[in-house]
Amino acid sequence: MENMPGGTVVTTSLEKVLNESRASSLWYLLFGTACCAIEMMCAGASRYDFDRFGMFFRASPRQADLMFVAGTITHKMAPRVKLLYEQMAEPRYVIAMGGCACSGGPFYYDTYAVLKGVDQIIPVDVFLPGCPPRPESLMEACIKVQQKVKKEKLQDWSSDRRG
Ligand code: SF4
Predict the structure, then answer these.
(1) Measuring CA to CA, which residue among 67, 93, 91 is closest to residue 18?
(2) d(Cα 30, Cα 51) in Å, to the nearest integer?
(3) 133 lines ligand 1 (CB under 6 A)
(4) Does pTM surpass 0.85?
(5) Omega before 91 within 30 of 0, i.e. cis
(6) Rounded to an integer, what distance in angstroms lies between the CA atom of residue 49 and that of residue 152?
(7) Is ligand 1 within 6 A of the CB of residue 79?
(8) CA torsion, points 23, 61, 44, 133, in degrees to nearest 10?
(9) pLDDT digits over 53-106, tens only?
(10) How confident is the model at residue 3 (pLDDT cuts 50, 70, 90)?
């Protein structure tokens, strides 16, 4: 901000304006299974009020920037999770909510059918451990995604950014 004769001028960059706008309007797609999905649904209800972050649920991956993967993901479900992720436009972000989505959780040792972490099939931006994590924790994870978005460069927008 600079003081000029007759007023004040604000200078910024296009990148900052775009990043602030994107961070303040993250529209999310739900992939909820098992117990963690109940906490995720609770986070979207009026008590926690995600809308105040500019975050809205979208039923279509093509309109979503952020995917919540909450709950136990089996190997049978894994291709659907990957397909939905690939249908989202770039730049896109993922939160793995709960021990199951992060690493297989309590099923890590007990079953061959559960994926040992959703990061085995799609890139994950924030891992949120817990069994289940509370809605407040999911909100904190969303704030971490917002902080990440605000620091990004335009060239980071493609999925190639993750190598
Ligand atoms: S992490 Fe715990 S609460 Fe969440 S889906 Fe797995 S078993 Fe259920």
Answers:
(1) 91
(2) 15
(3) no
(4) yes
(5) yes
(6) 26
(7) no
(8) -90
(9) 899 899 999 999 999 999 999 999 999 999 999 999 999 999 999 999 999 999
(10) confident
The residue whose CB lies within 8 Å of the most ligand 1 atoms, and thus the one to mutate among 131, 137, 138, is: 131
The alpha carbon of 45 and the centre of ligand 1 are apart by a number of angstroms equal to 20
Ligand 1 probe mutation, 31, 42, 68, 72, most atoms within 8 A of CB: 72
Q: What is the DSSP letter of 48?
A: T
The pLDDT > 70 percentage for the chain reads 97
Q: How far apart are CA 65 and CA 5, in angstroms?
A: 42
* Rounded Cα–Cα distance for residues 121 and 21 (Å): 29
Give the count of beta carbons closer than 10 Å to the beta carbon of residue 53: 15
- As a whole number of angstroms, the distance between CA 146 and CA 144 comes to 5
